[in-house]
């Protein structure tokens, strides 16, 4: 412990029995500078084990003292590395809409916020595309063929579709414009034969996709939180 004694000559200016300061301000600054030097030399003299403990303690203190936003960022990064589905789920608001897209509005998403599905010109919200690409590759490896019919649909397209196929609520096949999950880049219509549909029902959940609409076995939605 001798190496950890800052002032072997006895209690220093910061130790027990510290006398009231009687010098000039310049003397005080000199004393503080000396004290800082002593602390630096103490830090340099601690054993490796103590250094490790100090580093852990320092890291813990930093995490505890960081703002919750920074902590959430750190957590999100760690989560993304470990589980992209959980990371995608963390980006959804209470309505299941990506917080980065909600401000644009349903059917009004800019191209830059979407990404193209492998082997197709159709697009979805990027994290959905990433999972669908993985799903398609794994299905292919199992000898299953899945076609892509429709992904993101802009508002005007949904208006046209409602006119030609009728509203779902009236027995048709189109959502009310402004309400379709296609308008958020979260839905995809697939070309599925019986084997492919069975494969999807067995496996799609592992990629965050669910069969969400009765009477539409081709329509799958990205719901990573479910
Ligand atoms: Zn659909």
Report on this model:
The chain is α+β, with helices and mostly antiparallel strands and 226 residues long. It folds into two domains: 17-65, no CATH class; 99-222, Muramoyl-pentapeptide Carboxypeptidase, domain 2. It has helices spanning 25-45, 48-65, 68-82, 84-89, 99-102, 126-141, 155-165, 194-203; strands at 114-116, 123-125, 147-150, 187-191, 209-211, 219-222. A four-stranded antiparallel beta sheet has the order 3-4-6-5, with helices on one face. It has a two-stranded antiparallel ribbon with strand order 1-2. 23% of the residues are buried. The model is unreliable at 47-58 (pLDDT under 50). The site of zinc ion has 4 residues, from β4.
Identify the CATH class of the largest domain.
Answer: Alpha Beta
Oligomer: single chain
* Heterogens: zinc ion
Largest sheet: 4 strands, antiparallel
Radius of gyration: 31 Å
**β-strand number:** 6
Average pLDDT level = 81
Query: What is the succession of H and E elements?
Result: HHHHHEEHEHEHEE
Instruction: Give the CATH topology of the largest domain.
Output: Muramoyl-pentapeptide Carboxypeptidase, domain 2
